[in-house]
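Quick one: structure tokens for this chain, please?
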Amino acid sequence: MGFLDVLFGRSKPVTPDLDQLFGLPSAAVTLQAALGFTPTGAGSVCFAAIEGGAFAQVRQEVRDLLLADAERADAPVEFNADEYGYSWLVSRRRPDDLPALVGDLHAVNTALQDSGFGPQLLCSLVAFSHPERRPLALVYLYKRGTFYPFAPLPGNRRDNPLELQVKALLQDDLRIERDLTRWFPLWGAPAL
């Protein structure tokens, strides 16, 4: 970054580090031991909708890559669109196979990034459940290279105390987003 960048308040964008996703299994152990949340086996990747043949080809390659796994007989892969016009790839695995789910999410993000569609990637999430609480997601912000917890409540509300508790709990396991204004709600996110 040069002198003029500092003077005018410009900063370099954070380079996504998709390998951060591989910290999720250890974070899940911490989350389960401290708060009783366990993985549901569902995760998803959100990206801006893209039209055209090149993206359709990448989308098919991603689907084929994930479905080629011999252990996926009972673990579907699906594409959804939300009410805001974003596309979601949802992967489901056995709840006890979080490393495989993380591998799926990493493969999808990498395939889109390597095909030139990195700017369209928004986030990835992994869902957790608790027998006595509402769902919880750990969300990876692609453009920030950070995670944040999202705990939705009925009526498009959030369980902010739980989110802050999870933030404090996982700060040694994951790179947590410090700017709370970037903890975007993901209402109706597939897989959550």
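The chain has a mean pLDDT of 86.
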